[in-house]
Amino acid sequence: MGWEKSFVSNSPPRGREEDFYEVLEAFARRRQAGEFVKALRFASADEASVQFSDGGMHGGGVEVFKKQSGRWISIEKFHFM
């Protein structure tokens, strides 16, 4: 039907809703075609990781974000090898 994959967020962590959506927006700004969020996890109050899938041979990777000066910034991106 035109949608190959989708991500549905029904329950962001209670009390972290704003950060949750800001991390997703930061990922969306930098994502490559074919990359889709599989999971978003908070490691601390100012660090989060997004596990993503892609169309590559190994299926995706992880992008790490840090909150700096009130904005979520990508600090590392790894593709599974």
Structural notes for this entry:
This protein has 81 residues and is α+β, with helices and mostly antiparallel strands. Helices cover 17% and strands 42% of the residues. The protein contains one helix and four strands. It has a four-stranded antiparallel beta sheet. The longest helix is centred in the N-terminal third of the chain and has 14 residues, at 17-30. It is globular, with a radius of gyration of 13 Å.
* Classification by helices and strands: alpha+beta
Low-confidence stretches: 1-5
Net shape: globular
Radius of gyration: 13 Å
Work out the helix count: 1
Helical content class: 10-25%
Number of strands: 4
- Please tell me the total number of domains: 1
Task: Average the pLDDT over all residues and give the rounded result.
Answer: 85
Strand content: 35-45%
Query: Helices and strands, in N-to-C order?
Result: HEEEE
Strand order of the largest sheet: 1-2-3-4
Report how far the terminal alpha carbons are from each other: 31 Å
Search tags:
4 strands, alpha+beta, 81 residues, 4-stranded antiparallel beta sheet
